[in-house]
Amino acid sequence: MASWLMSGSATYVGSMAVPAERTDAQVVRDVLSGERDAYRLLVRRYGGVLFNHAVRMVGSQDEAADLVQKALVSGYKKLASCREPDRVGAWLFRILSNLAKDFVRSPRRRDISLDRLPDIPEGSSTPFDTAHRGELRRRLQAALGSLTPEQREAFVLKHVDGRSYEEMAAVLDVPRASLKMRVHRAREALKELLEDFR
Amino acid sequence: MKEELHRQLDGEERANQLGEGPKTFSETDLPEELDAWGRLLGAFQVELAQSAPPPWLESRVMAEIEALPEPGRLKRLGNWLLAPRPLRVSPLLAGAAATAVLALLLFGRLSFPGVVQGPGEATVVYVQFAFEAPGAQSVAVAGDFDGWAGSHSLEDGNGDGVWTGRIPLEPGVHTYMFLIDGATWQTDPRAERYADDGFGNRNAVLAVAAPSA
Question: What is the chain B residue with the closest CA to A47?
């Protein structure tokens, strides 16, 4: 069956019945019942979101991938303790969040390896001269690295991911007021460190 | 930093309109400060642009899980018994079950009519999205339907700057935005409805009706 209804720049072009994907809660139940391979669905659903957050927290794709792997395996081992299986994505995010913050706190990670950061996409526009991108990158990462892990996480979720405080509170299970304070303090610190770049 | 600036950057309304109550910023300082912050936050968004996870991630995670010892039968049984699950029962069969219980009470015998699971199909509606972005390297649609990951890429096959793509959506009300070059969020200028996203921007709202039978 096809219908053609306009809604802004989104147009209905047809519909079809497809086998329903298992919900998160169903996947969790199936895994706990012994169907290990069902966990693959959660890896596919949330691997990308977890990876991007990890990269933004630790500044290295290799180390971010290791952390995500660790978080997902840890999630599998502790799956029976997930109290809200229909929100298993947020639960996995919290596991990764804690691992990433611990990692950033660890002494060996104080110096971020800038060489391993992903390349800035070609054609992306910034208000800054592209000739100064290397310097800009170092300054931005160093400034982020100077924040506490909690401030860095809150700043990234708010101003890079564009999450609202309500969404952040729901995902991190942290009061909205605390998150707001972390973002405010992060901005204060970044303003001091990057005054000449603004 | 002044509270007024924080409120603006948080996407919240100002407590005092300019001209009312004590001013925490001069009328000229605030736009300059906001402009400076806009440049800085834009630089962070470019620097921390989304990237795809390595292709080996899934296989490594699953290999590590496969290498773990199998949970014992008792543990699996415990998990199965403790996990909450919905049951779908047809009214006819529920009535039959009630009748059987009544028959047991009346005649001392019980029969189980059984429980039937639904067919496990959901309807999706294909929605065509279009966005004009000449010069963009990539355009994706992100919304509540993909956890705002921007996983649905649009294409500009003929290079005319109009990016299009068809996305399967379940019937219901969805919010979405366009993600340009993996870094810049744009509200659909042609949406019929909008909703505040809680931090000063507007999401486009799309109501997808279920197809009639």
Answer: B53
